[in-house]
Amino acid sequence: MTRLPARARTPRRPARARTTQPPVRYRIITASLLTVAALYFLTPVYWLIVSTTKNSADLFGTFGFWFSAHPHPLDHLADVLTYDHGIYLRWFANSLLYAGIGAVCATLLSAAAGYALAKFPFRGREAVFNVVLAGVLIPGTALALPLYFLFSSMGLADTYWAVLIPSTVSPFGVYLCRIYAAAAVPDSLLEAARIDGAGEARIFGGLGLRLMTPALVTVFLFQFVHIWNNYFLPLVMLSDSDLYPIQLGLTSWTGYADRQPVLYQYTVGGAFLSVLPLMVLMTVLQRYWRTGLTEGSVKA
Amino acid sequence: MSRDTLSRAAPVAPGRPAPRRRPRRATRTEARNARAAACFVLPFLAVFCLCFLAPIVYALHQSLYTTERTGPLGLGGREHEAFAGLANYAQALSDGRFLAGFGRVLLFGAVQIPLMLVLATALALLLESAGARAVTFFRSAFFLPYGVPGVIASILWGFLYVPGISPLVKIAGALGWDVDFLSRGSVLWAIANIVVWQFTGYNMLVLIAQLKAVPGELYEAARIDGANAWQVARHIKLPLIRPALVLTTVFSIIGTLQLFAEPMVLRPLASSIDSGFTPNLHAYSEAFVGNNQHVAAAEAVLLALVACGLSFGFLRLVGGRAKDRG
Amino acid sequence: MTSNPMHRRTVLGGAAALAAGFALAGCGDSGDGDGRAPRERKKGQKINLTFWSWVPGIDKPVDLWNRKNPEVQVKVEKVSAVNGEQYAKMHAAVKAGNPPDLGQIEFPVIPSFLLDNGLLDLAPLGAARHKDKFFGWQWQQSVFGKGIYAVPQASGPMGLFVRQDLFDEWGVRTPTTWDEYEAAAKAVRRKGAWIETFAPTNGNRFSGLAWQAGAKWYANHGDTWIVHIDDEPTRRVADYWESLVKQKLVKTIPDRQNAWYKDLQTGAIAAWVGASWGDALLVGNAPGTKGRWRAAPLPQWQAGGKDFANWGGSTTAVFAKASYPKDALDFAVWLNTDPESIALLIDGGYGFPSAKKGYSTADLDVDKAFFGGQAYSKIFADAGAHVDTSWQWGPGVDTLYQRLGDAFTDALADGSSFRSALTKVQGQTLADLKGKGLKVESGG
Fold first, then answer.
1. Does the CB of C92 have a partner CB in chain A at under 8 Å?
2. A29 contacts in B (CB within 8 Å)?
3. Is the N or the C terminus of chain B less surrounded, counting Cβ atoms within 10 Å?
4. Among A134, A157, A240, beta carbon nearest to C77
5. Domain spans of chain B, in order of start
6. Does the structural domain B96-325 have CATH classification 1.10.3720.10?
7. According to the CATH classification, is domain A75-299 in 1.10.3720.10?
8. Plot region of C53 (φ>0 → left; ψ -120 to 50 → alpha; else → beta)
């Protein structure tokens, strides 16, 4: 990839040509590099689509990049959804619940905390902020184990709460909200609202949240994906498969697959189904990823 | 991030009772501020303490104790916790496999993070260059893998790695190239590939966002000054995305030290991945397979310390350099 | 940068405050003073029991039980069995004080759970009266001292599966001794296929092979554990497989994984030293090879010998904190002795029943057609009758397997001897057990 600039430099043409339209050669190089990269990123996705049409025997017995002779993708996907009394749908719903509710709560908590840290000069503020910042840097997996023992002693292990509660904490969200609020919420506006007699809660709810919206969307998306992708915490916390999020469910299927080979095919089909909506979501919501994140890094 | 944080750091040592001498006139606003701030910060802090601080304290506590057993053969007898000092840390640090795991992820990070960020930067610059067509398609294609969770990405790539099943190995074989992605020498890079695949697009997006934040006139002005595409990229765009690169590097460092799901999923497929392949996997094995909570706690603490140390170290490094320049 | 140490102090300061809170809350210790005292069920009272298992077909007999016993409802929670995760979960739950009522636990790991006081001693509940319903040696696997800690469910007598069609085609005779096995391996290799894989991470099978050779890894003397992983028979087994590996007569890929199944399907691997429960695996994962497999007795170290061993096999155990121990025991006994339940377990492909009655050996030939009509279960039944019953498991076997796997993986990578791997594991195991506060001595 890094070779491009060197090549792009070779055609020494007058500068004014470039201000209107880059040379054809340059465009071809750009396009081919981008195509190679796209091939790399899409190959596994293509494999997944192809494999969804196969049963377990074909999965192992036929060439991975081409369709099976007797593709039955819809039957296979229907099997995935109905297997074990439709447990797959339940896992899917669980994932949505953990990621959805967790991310909403995390966003609100972060917004409030970040707002306060940015707008209220209280004693110990920096201490609080530094501790939170350290929270960003501590690997979450290092915490999961002690957290399990803690939650067990409170009777929370193996319940929805065990995954939901930790999911509502996003130190990075607080960091981002503070940075964003400091820049996007003018003090003068707050003072004006206070003079008008508005309470702090109303100012935050009406004014603060509105002004911080771009950052909040980013925090929400970030946390949603974080929770959706989190494997270690549910792995440690949950044993009742009715509570599993989708990934834990799918890995548990691969775990039984040597006794029930049909589960290989279900795992692949299940992976396909679970990846689909998230990929669509990613693509559609792309632009929301940018705003807040850059704010965070630009301001820092 | 660093300079901002550090320059704002409180001059008062926290965690101690506040000294009772404040200028009078400030008291009322301060009290009002403190009350409002408390209402806003406390909900977060409560959950934060429960889910971050408490486990750390618990791990610290656990790491200093050990289990002693009495009773015939140690079975069915009483067990109690006894203070062990730093014995668990000594044991963790003298465990060659644990240290090797650290060495492995450090090597992993040293190669994978720059590789991924160079790739992300290159793709971002290409997509933002004037020569690019079908930008939306390419950007979506690169970003797509971010929607695939690590576990599922590992299952996918697992199928593409396992000899005998992998179409990639088959194609390579047909070209006379005998590859084994899961051999001892290559499995680490097979995992690195999964991480690169997943996160390059995400990092690219962050960088693109930063590039877009730059007013277009700047580029136009540079072009009119006769700068070619490479010069614009090198002298205008790269310095501009530096803060974003710092941010993504820090996140990548943390992510690297957490490496768990990928080796965990690939482990049954590859006998080259041992129980201490990454420090995290080692701690998990100690805690759950070996049932050694105390050593595992010590390892978790060490892991957290190294992660913090490395991240701060990196921030300090780039912060320092920026100061030299600026 | 001056604020960096400051920062650390912040963290530690907060931590210290929290530590104090912890001590008060008393969450630091998993004492047994919580409210889950064992209770007796009153007549007509409805109760629920939870049962952690990973056996795919276990729901069926449990459903049957639930229909027959409306007052004692059992709920199965499936726990993943990848990399021994199920035990990881159970250990953690025991430690945390919230284990299920019942659990599926394999023979080798029972002592590990005794170490945490995780299992309920069933002797005071009169479990001894069920003893005669089961094969003696399997019952003994969960007896320690005077305590009875589980109800055996199934065993896994070892045997050899071969692709008879390929062996016939290549003129290779099914080996009856390990010498013949090596010769067969060479013959198969000459045809471009492999006889087997030696999966370095499969400590489970390796222990079975050592068991067959007469090894005694664990023993006890007074209140001291005697550990001898590198005893003479085990070394012989290690030398044997090392030699096969070094001669490149066996593969070293993991078994029971994608690549291995693929090799079984294509005939790239033509035999498998497996166990009675292996039939379901072959049928499920290599359906295209139907009719071509046969089972044979495990090769012997001495011609005409009758030394067999066990791989796998599990029990239904009652956890120490079970709310209704008596009902849990009743369920465990019913699950593993009731003829209807056994029939459902056999259907699920779950190994050789530990119960003596309630089925016939022929019932176990679930997939006769796959084995070309062979009454293959007879072979395993015969092996089961000759398993060396003096073998004993000790605490920390799951760790031991991991150590063995790591050591063999290292040995394969750097070419060092399997013997030295055993010596290493022996040392590590002694240290592990000492670290758990046990009295340990090295055997031999």
1. yes
2. 131
3. C
4. A240
5. 96-325
6. yes
7. yes
8. beta
